[in-house]
Amino acid sequence: MTGCRDPVSCPFLSTRIPEWPPRRNTAGDPFAELREAWRRISGQFGGFGGGGGPSRLGPRIILPALLLLWLASGIYIVRPDEKGIVLRFGAAVREVDSGPHWHLPWPIEEVLKPSVTQILKEEIGFRTTDPGPPARYQDMDNEALMLTGDENIVKLQFIVQYKVRTGPDGVTDYLFNVRDPRETVRSGAEAAMREVVGRTGIDSVLTEGKEKVQQEAQAELQAILDRYDVGIEVMTVKLQDVDPPDQVSDAFKDVISAQQDRERLINEALGYANDVVPKARGQAAQLVNEAQGYREAKVREASGTAQRFIALYDEYAKAKDVTRQRLYLETMEDILPRANKIILDDLAARQAVPYLPLENFLPRRPEAAPEPARR
Q1: 8 Å CB contact between 54 and 43
Q2: CATH of region 121-163+177-244
Q3: DSSP-derived 3-state class of residue 108
């Protein structure tokens, strides 16, 4: 160890860091500095070989180790919610699924791993300033005010939910075909909604046509993004608030309230009609059935009476005296039991005083109410 007088030859006996770049004249050799640096590095690692000078085994160990470390740096893992895009000198060469993979280390290849399952959201016509609770929003009238098909203005706020498309080249298109996918979605959503609202009346937008507007806007936005190969799949377009402009909001509310009252009265009238009409139809059917039954009964009764009269006439034609006497007796049997009568012989009839009950022919007077008892 007595020969270790140079800190470069004995790096473990000295705390002095080698100077970089080395202080020597390199005017005539442009690679002299590199050779000098390599000499010093190999001299430091060659101290394990024993002796005073650098060992020749140093580069043979260092270079393979560095190569292995460099190759090992190409190992990467793609998570289940990600998609791997391998870039070779900045150009996309392939897409890989989740799991462990290997690529040529930097600077030849690198990997981008965007999430393909996360649902992203864009707000059009408003911005959430405080998620709360309670949440607070800021209106963006330059985005929300739109012209309808009947030349009215409506204030429309909506959200767009989307995610990266996982089909062939979907992730690659999302990363490289447009500079700002988020701004592209915002601009496309606003354009699609303006086009749909521009061919729809204001009454439909404010009331029952909202679902149709959402569906048409989603289809139009997806067509725009596909036309530019953005690599985005639109999940939903949802209207948040649809109102007239603030300047005429009160008037529109009165109109909508009147329309709702009209619909309510129409529904009440229809409900009353649905209640009364079936009852009237049932009563009419009942009366018709009763009339038909009465007609059938009278027709049958008349037919029976006619048949009985014909049969009686036939018997009368055969024996007139006997039949006449029998009819007389049957008639008296039917009448006399109901008559209030007194039977007298000739002698008693001559001795009886005739009496006519005139009071039975006079109208009866109402009986006076009894007077209350006096105390």
Answers
A1: yes
A2: 3.30.479.30
A3: coil
